[in-house]
Design a protein that fits this description.
Blueprint: E1 2-6, H1 11-22, E2 26-31, E3 50-54, E4 69-72, H2 79-84, H3 86-107, E5 110-116, H4 143-163, E6 167-172, E7 175-176, H5 187-196, E8 201-204, E9 210-212, E10 214-215, H6 216-228, E11 235-237, E12 242-244, H7 245-256, E13 262-265, H8 280-286, H9 294-309
Parallel strand pairs: 1-2, 1-4, 2-3, 4-5, 5-6, 6-11, 7-10, 8-13
Antiparallel strand pairs: 9-12
Helix pairs in contact: 1-6, 3-4, 5-7, 5-9
This protein binds nicotinamide-adenine-dinucleotide.
Length: about 300
């Protein structure tokens, strides 16, 4: 297959490019590098089966020749990024999704949207099944990301219903691994960076809020299975192993030998209290579940960041 990955120089997008190339597909990564970096794909440059195009996907997308699939991963994804780039985030979720769908339609390609657990907002149902419609504050600071992705899902379903585009929607829960940015504000790189520098880990609130973390290789496996499945409606992809942020902090301190402990700061606005995917649908329709334990995934991620901090 000839596959376009928007956001291909980002954290997840670049791992997806690696995986698709390893399966023998030809890959076109399209990215404007607003939150991603060419470092993530530098090892692919020069291959015959890989092409990087620097392009802002909120503008018309032109690709020469056939395309079999469009995987739309372009979007700022960490809260620090999307709160600093609120308009770009709304634009890439709305205009960017429209343009990426337009490309899929023009080429008769399958389309997969990287949506997010944030469509559930601060959930009133726990864990969150795909049938839950969510609890999002549209005008809060996080609303730019949550609503952009909700709009993107609606646009994807409209292209499916009106134009018959074969569409897939992955609702991705917190994912981590090598190639995240140390300063992207997400909790795992934050904690690992602080731990490797011997600083106390910053816990927002009392640390009792929960998250569930999926290692990137597991997520990519789920994405590939979803792409090849017949499932049009959204599918949650994430790791259902839930833990409190304080537990995570202690684990990272223990794994890195950091003795500086933790410090507490006030919780940001609209921070979700709990987050855990219900992955029964992914188990049923994709025969997928995460395989990599948190300890193993953290080990690999700490190793990656050690070189960056060192
Ligand atoms: N990492 C997670 O935990 C997570 C969870 C849920 C959903 N997602 C989704 O997965 C996708 C990838 O997230 P990530 O964690 O790899 O983030 P990332 O910031 O590392 O990657 C996003 C990429 O999109 C690019 N991009 C942004 N706007 C663009 C535009 N207008 N045109 C072209 N490229 C653009 C960025 O430069 C970057 O390379 C995003 O759509 C995100 O919403 C990620």
């Amino acid at each position: 297959m000839r596959i376009v990955v928007t956001g291909g120089a980002g954290f997840i997008g670049s791992h997806l490019c690696d995986r698709l190339l390893a399966e023998g597909h030809s890959v076109i990564a399209m990215d404007n590098l607003i939150t991603g970096t060419a470092d993530n794909i530098v090892h692919l440059v020069g291959r015959d089966d890989f092409l990087f195009i620097k392009h802002d996907v909120t503008n018309y997308i032109y690709i020469d020749g056939p395309v079999d699939a469009v995987l739309h991963f372009a979007s700022p994804a960490s809260p620090i990024d999307y709160m600093q780039l609120p308009i770009q985030t709304l634009k890439v979720g709305a205009l960017g999704t429209h343009k990426a769908l337009g490309l899929a339609r023009a080429k008769g390609a399958r389309f997969l949207l990287a949506s997010t657990s944030e469509v559930y907002g601060d959930p009133l149902v726990h864990p969150q099944p795909e049938t839950y419609w969510g609890n999002v504050n549209p005008i809060g600071p996080r609303g730019v990301y949550d609503e952009a992705k909700r709009f993107a899902e609606a646009m994807t379903m409209a292209y499916h219903r009106v134009h018959g585009v074969e569409t897939r929607i992955a609702r991705i829960f917190n994912t981590y691994g090598p190639r995240m940015r140390l300063d992207d504000g997400r909790v795992i790189p934050n904690f690992i960076g602080q731990a490797l520098r011997g600083e106390p880990l910053t816990v927002y609130g009392d640390g009792s809020q929960t998250r569930s973390f999926c290692y990137v290789d597991d997520l990519v496996e789920g994405i590939v299975r979803l792409l090849h499945s017949d499932e049009v409606e959204p599918v949650n992809l994430g790791n259902p192993q839930e833990m409190s942020i304080l537990e995570l902090a202690h684990l990272i301190n223990q794994m890195t030998g950091n003795e500086a402990g933790v410090i507490f700061k006030p919780l940001p606005k609209d921070d979700p209290r709990v987050r855990r995917p219900d992955i029964s649908k992914a188990r049923r329709v994709l025969d997928w579940e995460p395989k990599i334990s948190l300890e193993e995934g953290l080990e690999r991620t700490i190793e990656y960041f050690r070189a960056k901090v060192g």
